[in-house]
């Protein structure tokens, strides 16, 4: 991911995402995923945490959300918002993509409006492939890219295959032959 986002730009982005969330609630978008109670979710490039917070509510107390971002303000935002909402199943992770998590430990990876910013997509796809359980899902949306760019980007390297094009997102499954 790119670390070039200034604090001012992050604040502007966070404000624009609050407006977006009013018209397209994250909980509604997450209904297109395979999310369920008890899941372990990685919100990759979480930004201010809208999807992390919604996911934490959907997976319940037995689930876990990891909110990963490279920007320190994103981590602060997620911590503050989770505390304010009393959510104890969210753990912010400050990282450029390396997680240190065990292999096959994640049920669902959210990649929303960040794929276009990956400096080293092959490295990040390899990490996601390592983390995702065999029956797990990657849910992706990126309004900066067209359908062809999203599908070819995610299937590059044969780590993932398109499972379904939803109304707002794409669902990708782990390629088992990799």
Write the layout of secondary structure elements.
Layout lengths: L6 H17 L2 H5 L9 E5 L5 H10 L4 E6 L2 H13 L5 E5 L11 E7 L8 H11 E10 L5 H9 L4 E6 L4 E5 L4
Parallel strand pairs: 1-2, 1-4, 2-3, 4-5
Antiparallel strand pairs: 5-7, 6-7
Molecular structure report:
The chain has helices at 7-23, 26-30, 50-59, 72-84, 121-131, 147-155, and strands at 40-44, 64-69, 90-94, 106-112, 132-141, 160-165, 170-174. It has a single domain, classed as Vaccinia Virus protein VP39 (Rossmann fold). The chain is of the alpha/beta class and 178 residues long. Strand 6 (160-165) and strand 7 (170-174) form a beta hairpin.
- Report the radius of gyration as a whole number of Å: 15 Å
Helix content percent band: 25-40%
Number of strands: 7
Main sheet attributes: strand count, strand direction, barrel closure:
7 strands, mixed
Please state the second-level CATH architecture: 3-Layer(aba) Sandwich
Global mean pLDDT: 91
* Oligomeric description of these chains: single chain
Work out the helix count: 6
> Structural class, from helix and strand content?
alpha/beta
Per CATH, the class reads Alpha Beta
Q: Within the largest sheet, what's the order of strands?
A: 3-2-1-4-5-7-6
Q: How is the CATH topology named?
A: Rossmann fold
**Strand and helix order:** HHEHEHEEHEHEE
Shape: globular
> How many domains make up the coordinates?
1
CATH level 4 superfamily? Vaccinia Virus protein VP39
Proportion of strand residues = 15-25%
Give start-end ranges of low-pLDDT stretches.
none
The N- and C-terminal alpha carbons lie at a distance of 24 Å
